[in-house]
Here is the input.
Amino acid sequence: QVQLVESGGGLVQAGGSLRLSCTASGFTFSRYAMAWFRQAPEKEREFVAAISWWSGSSTYYADSVKGRCTISRDNAKNTVYLQMNSLKPEDSAVYYCAGTIQTSADLRTTPHNYDLWGQGTQVTVSS
Here is the structure.
């Protein structure tokens, strides 16, 4: 059974940090490019960060999180991480992990390009 399970969300004060984890099972994790998206209430799901398959040598970030977030992967643990620092109230959202077979050098940033999704983890940043 293919699964992506996120963890690590919670309530944090502005300026704080969180590390989200997403553990995969049921497929060959190393072959998939992975990404994080987020969705706030009444807003569309938006791209946060992506990392290339296998070595994870390529990463890409939304402008809104660039310099504050780091995406990484550990293929031995079938896990992708999102380290978030200097959190702001506007970062509050449900964060989703997503995966796709990478078919080009470019990392995808739109939800419809990803076919595997987790159930999400809530991040709330208080001011």
